[in-house]
Amino acid sequence: MSCIAVIDFETTGATPAQGARATEVAICLLEGGRIVDRFASLMNAGVHVPSFITQLTGISNEMVVASPPAEAVMREAAAFVGARPMVAHNAAFDRQFWHSELAHCGLAAPHEFACTLLLSRRLYPDVPNHKLGTLAQWFDLPVSGRAHRALADAEVAAHLLARMQRDLEKRHDCCDVNAALLMALQRTPIAQVGAFLKRLAA
Description:
- By secondary structure, the protein is of the alpha/beta class.
- The chain has nine helices and five strands; from the N terminus they run βββαααβαβααααα.
- It is globular, with a radius of gyration of 17 Å.
């Protein structure tokens, strides 16, 4: 299996379009079903952290003010990822912050994103819901820290992706579960997933 970068952001709000900025980023490199490297840092983008975000994440204004500048962190994060394909849980959220924070640095963000949320809906329709915490409990995935902190969530998402790769290989005879296959699967309508997987095994 190729190496995939699994990312998670903590932020001051829902979208950069409304002025939200990142407060923390974490990236796990997943290769051969194992996390082989990690990058994580708080960052100071010069914005206020609302109290409800502090309650959710534990990240305070004092923590952010004492952290490295966002531009420096994002340049380091971009170098860590390189040209690897990227994965996130609810990738629509993390992708917009990846693009926005790199744009603040004057850096391009050509990376493709696969989404473990979309993939879980296709592979595990019987799970009560497809929140990361629910899936972690359902599959008894390793949990190493507080939810809604970037590194803890990135690690859980990486373990979830590894589980998906193993299930695709063992249950559906997929021999190379790479990023291209994952992106094709997440774009497949749910009603057509069975046929898609049969074609892969043929």
